[in-house]
Amino acid sequence: MRLLSHLLASSVLLSAVIAEAAPVYVQAGPGSFNHAALDLLADRNAETFQRLYSGTPDNTYATAAENNAWAFSALANSTIEGQLVPAIVNAMRNYRVIELKASVHMPIEMCVFGLNNTSKITHAASHPAALKQINRWLSVHQIKTKPVPKGTNEAARLLADGKFNQNTVAIGSCALKAVFPKLTLREVGIQDNADNQTLFGLMKLEKRPHKVNVDEARAALKQVVVHAQTQIKARADSGKSVFSLIDKRLAQMQSVALFKANKHKPIEDLSREVVVLSQALEQARQQCLDTNSVKAFFQAQMDAAKAIQYRYRAQWLAEGVPNKTADLTKLRHSLNHLGSAILETLTSHLAKHGNLTPELEPVFNAVLVTDNLTGKDKQRLYRALQSVRRVKNCQTTD
């Protein structure tokens, strides 16, 4: 527990700035799942990393420790027995984590790359561990494997360089497309386990005075994983605070639709939308939020609100308008309060946990339970919400 206490004490908020273009030794190679996870972290904090891809965890940890630099690697995977990544356990025998800067929890989606989009696939090349995760796809299509121990990146490179024929595909992260643009993305999400999740960490390490045994290394890694999960949960809980307010605001739309139906008023009220946007933009300026991104989010929120109201009106055409009353003055007061609370809570989240990224979209979808809100409504809302940014070098006003 002493290590866990040390990690908790030494951890800093994600809003702390890593030096611009800070060198980070990254496990595996360009286009790997580590690459994709570090992209998420960079987007979360609007940071630039000097990426030094280092192959194995042993080499990654050694070079990071020698240069007093950050190391970025996988820590745990939901499909592995015991979840701990064996190669990381082995590296932990020689190195220990002295600081866990940030954590990323990301779904692992296996993608298929070919030289074209039409050739019959007879062989799949990838790292042996990746090939073990696509047994169903291999069996259904009767595809043979070509193990590439150097990694998914190497398999894609060999394919792009013409070392394999057109009937061979490379399997790996969708991030490989950015590294090897000449390859064609043929399929997405072919992994056996749809809930394949990996936990990654950005860490500082030091070499141990003496190599420890496997059990000791596993215990040390478990403590790091616990701390990483604590960071992930704190970020998710903060996000839920924002998302629940959005859901509460949208839940008011049934009452708004009821008032308009009883008064025979149209759903769309453009003059009211101007007022709502004006209030939101003024608060955004006071809280150092980018006004263009806030405007886009509030517009998406108002569009979702109108869609909900239209769906209720359509429902009531068949069922009749409920015999209830609604007070629009009180409703608007509540909506104004919730709109302000959304921006305040979002500002706090961005300051403490960085920008919203796709990691939290499943949480967003689970929290928003308002009736008559569709999956596409949620998708547009979250895309707009995750675009909201803080303005740098800006002082908030009281």
Please describe the topology of this protein.
Blueprint: H1 2-10, E1 22-27, H2 33-45, E2 49-55, H3 57-66, E3 70-77, H4 86-92, E4 95-107, E5 111-114, E6 123-126, H5 128-131, H6 135-140, E7 144-147, H7 152-160, E8 168-172, H8 176-179, E9 184-188, E10 197-207, H9 214-251, H10 253-262, H11 270-286, H12 291-319, H13 328-353, H14 361-367, H15 375-385
What can you see in these coordinates?
The protein is an alpha/beta fold and 398 residues long. 50% of the residues lie in helices and 17% in strands. The chain contains 15 helices and ten strands. Strands 2-1-3-10-4 form a five-stranded mixed beta sheet, with helices on both faces. The protein has a five-stranded mixed beta sheet with strand order 7-6-8-5-9. Mean pLDDT is 92; it is low at 1-19.
Notable characteristics:
15 helices; 5-stranded mixed β-sheet; alpha/beta; 398 residues; disordered N terminus
Which class of secondary structure composition applies to the elements?
Answer: alpha/beta
- Proportion of strand residues: 15-25%
Q: Residue ranges: pLDDT <50 for 5 or more in a row?
A: 1-19
Main β-sheet: number of strands, strand sense, barrel status? 5 strands, mixed
**End-to-end Cα distance:** 42 Å
- Overall shape: it is globular
Question: How many strands in all?
Answer: 10
Radius of gyration: 25 Å
Calculate the mean pLDDT score and round it: 92
Largest beta sheet: what is the strand line-up?
2-1-3-10-4
Number of helix segments? 15
Q: Tell me the helix content.
A: 40-55%
- Sketch the topology as an H/E string, one letter per element: HEHEHEHEEEHHEHEHEEHHHHHHH
